[in-house]
Amino acid sequence: MNDTTTEKDKPSLCRLLLHLDSREFTAAIVSTVEDSSLRVLRIPLPDGPTESALEEAVYSHPRLLADYRKVDLVVRTPQFSLLPGEMETKDVDSLASEFVYEGTEGVRFVDELTIGGSERLKNVWAVKEREVMNFLMRTFSAPSIHHHLTPLLKYFGRRNVLGNSGKLYVNVHSAADGGERGELDLLSFGLGGRLELANTIPFDGLEDAQYYILAAARASGLNVGSDEILIGGDRRLRASLLSGLRQFASYVMPQVFPAEGLRIGNEAPEIPFSLILMPICE
Prior knowledge:
Among the domains are: 7-75, Protein of unknown function DUF3822, N-terminal domain (Nucleotidyltransferase, domain 5); 161-254, Protein of unknown function DUF3822, C-terminal domain (Nucleotidyltransferase, domain 5). The model has no long low-confidence stretch (mean pLDDT 90). A hairpin with a 7-residue loop joins β2 (24-31) and β3 (39-44). Helix content is 27%, strand content 34%. It has helices spanning 51-59, 89-96, 130-139, 149-159, 206-219, 235-245, 259-263, 273-280; strands spanning 14-20, 24-31, 39-44, 70-75, 80-84, 100-101, 104-105, 107-115, 119-127, 144-147, 167-174, 181-189, 195-204, 228-233, 251-254. By secondary structure, it is α/β, with parallel strands linked by helices. α4 (149-159) packs across α8 (273-280) and α5 (206-219) crosses α6 (235-245). The two termini are 26 Å apart.
């Protein structure tokens, strides 16, 4: 990431998008007044996210510490639960108290969202690395923090308000080492756009990934002979999955990358999809 700036590139006119998963920390800077402005920094975390590793990464790139117009942080964690939006706060707190890691409570969050125009949900989630989250929250200026499924739910839910067929959206999040493993974000919508399933599942190889995708379609009541499976995310793995799944399902297609995302820069399809969706879903 180049630390030189132009007038339109000033931090006060830019948005900082951060993404943390178990093996990588990604930072993207986007101008709020200019297209094709995307700048990306990807920092591998081979030993996982630790406070010392993130501290070294952040302070090695002083531009990340500037005073941005807005800071968004998306965290990828398997510890989450989707609850009805009408659930009382005390009941949500009771459920959240169950998020415990190895005898120590993690940091807990609640994302409130509406999908499909009317379906209200609470995404209750937690991160076990308390010291990591504390570092990020005190280092960056008032970051807006969200679970990785929250922007996906908003985006795909909006696209299915008038759905006349069932759809399974698959976001392939590959591992940082470039192998054939990673995680599948699976969101299934039935007729009328009703959410039927939302989950994240790790996979180790393309056959594993194909199995989980087909199992998710069936578990959510979709008909693989008539409903749609749309694959997005990692370009390299997506192509192989499309070819393999077409042997078992009739309507398997690539997702169309949002035009709003392409406008911010050519590198947009290469960074975590949840991150790109943050400004789009507001």
